[in-house]
Automatic annotation (TrEMBL):
It comes from the Bacteria. Signal peptide: none annotated. This is FemAB-related protein, PEP-CTERM system-associated. Residues 165-298 form the BioF2-like acetyltransferase domain. InterPro entries: Acyl_CoA_acyltransferase, BioF2-like_GNAT_dom, PEP-CTERM_FemAB-rel, PG_Glycine_Bridge_Synth.
Amino acid sequence: MNAPNHPAAAPGVSAAPLGEATAWDAYVAAHPAATPFHSRMWCDAVTAATGHRCHLVAARDATGALTGILPLHHVRSALFGQALVATGFAVDGGILADDAAVAATLADGAADVARSLGVPSVELRGGVLPMAEGWMREDGVYAGFARDLAADDAAELLAIPRKQRAEVRKVLESGLTVTTGRDAAERRDHYRVYATSVRNLGTPVFPKRLFDAVLDAFGDDADILTVREDGRAVASVLSLYWRGAVMPYWGGGLAEARALRANELMYYALMRHARAKGCTRFDFGRSKVGTGPFAYKKNWGFEPRPLVYARWLAPGETPRDTNPTSAKYRLQVDLWKKLPLWAANRIGPLIARGLG
């Protein structure tokens, strides 16, 4: 049953197979609010890398044309439970629709798919927020950071607040070098750096095949930028390029990266690299409110924009907890930081694939 003042649902919702490629691609390409996480490229990559099946909830008009989509990954985990997630391993996505009535249809359809599969919850990480019964808003946890890129290197430096700008100037005079690419060597070095970084934070690493699948699916719209000291990778980031914006998505650094100011060079070099690719905007992604990454992005001159997500729960169910900063995981996080890297890389992907 819909809540009061909730737009009437439009007819024509269905769960479509992944094979509806042409219509899906065309709808995402034409919709101004589409993100890379609505794309079939992203959904296929996640499915190929993790085995999480994608259910495309679609709405159509009387002619059969798409009027809205909601891709959902069925994430299953012995540790974290199961959920339909829009979309897996993404920070955005959610309902993409022509109007409020279609959005209501998709929200109802997502709940219907969850019931049919016996899944206790649906998680939306962006898009239109459903207002129907059974849905709840989740705010105050994450903020997004994005701003326009400056016209050139000099203007980009001036756009960075004074204290952070001084750090960037220092590292520009260092002997660190930067490489970009998508080949096997860049992928290997990126994964080693990223896996080490998240292990040091006490977090299990995603499967390497997820990074490979995303790079392969997005082609020239995804690449890796790596900062090197005497040829050795010390910081690295895998970025997406979407409608004129660069999105540094999976990045990290070794323990010595901080002293070397490698992260400062990495993000400034990425701004330069993205501008050369024709980008006009830098999307620094999301961070949890009150954390170090949140403060770091503010130091670069980015203003936080509160993110509001939504979750549907079946009656009597409680939300799954996948937050690594949660008190219930404090002991596990501390122990994970002490694991040898080879062990963390062997066990981590088995755990992380269940986070979705």
